[in-house]
From TrEMBL:
Interacts with 100S ribosomes. This is Ribosome hibernation promoting factor. Signal peptide: none annotated. Keywords: Cytoplasm, Ribonucleoprotein, Ribosomal protein, Translation regulation. One of its GO terms (biological process) is negative regulation of translational elongation. SUPFAM superfamilies: Ribosome binding protein Y (YfiA homologue) (SSF69754). The gene is hpf. GO terms for molecular function: ribosomal small subunit binding.
Length: 191
């Protein structure tokens, strides 16, 4: 597994990098025998350290976790425990996923745009209803079943996931609702 361990305005020493590689590698290997790479970023927020970890699996799924504590090693351990809990919850589904799917998840390229936020304090209407594009990027849209999409959304800790439904090839969205349930938007199911 490839590791990218870095710090935002923090020097990440060799001892911490070795600790992260051994502990995170052990955690991920318990539940997934084919991880490809991991990105771990340490930062500081006032008096606390923040650790953000993202692990990409060979199937195309991604697991993400965040931890924080007053010490940097404790922040990593908090993050590792959250990652362990997520992967443990989905262990059976991850294992079944490997058996059912002989090929890795396919990804299609898609455009992604960042729009400028409107001024909430402004009482007058904007001059134009066309928002200002701040950035243009490329993102990847996975081809998944609905169950896999829900699992991927929860593993990544994302509020929503856009995916291509493997049954009919249409673009779908799963999202976490305010009531705690998961919503599924499938434009093709309208009758």
């Amino acid at each position: 597994m490839r590791y990218q361990i870095s710090g935002k305005q923090i020097d990440v020493g060799d001892a911490l990098q070795t600790h992260v590689k051994s502990e995170l590698g052990e955690t991920v290997e318990k539940y997934s025998q084919r991880p490809t790479d991991a990105t771990v970023v340490f930062s500081r927020n006032a008096h606390q350290f923040l650790c953000e970890a993202t692990v990409h699996l060979s199937t195309g799924l991604t697991a993400a976790a965040t931890g924080h504590a007053t010490e940097i090693y404790a922040a990593f351990e908090s993050c590792r425990e959250k990652m362990d809990k997520q992967l443990r919850r989905y262990k059976r589904r991850l294992k079944d996923h490997h058996r059912d799917r002989s090929e890795p998840v396919e990804f299609d390229a898609a455009g992604m745009y960042v729009l400028a936020a409107g001024d909430a304090d402004q009482e007058t209407e904007p001059e134009s209803l066309s928002p200002i594009i701040v950035a243009e990027m490329e993102t990847k849209v996975p081809t998944l079943s609905v169950g896999e999409a829900v699992m991927q959304m929860e593993l990544a800790g994302a509020p929503l996931l856009v995916f291509r439904n493997e049954k009919h090839g249409g673009v779908n969205v799963v999202h976490r609702r305010d009531d705690g349930n998961v919503g599924w938007i499938d434009p093709r199911n309208i009758k």
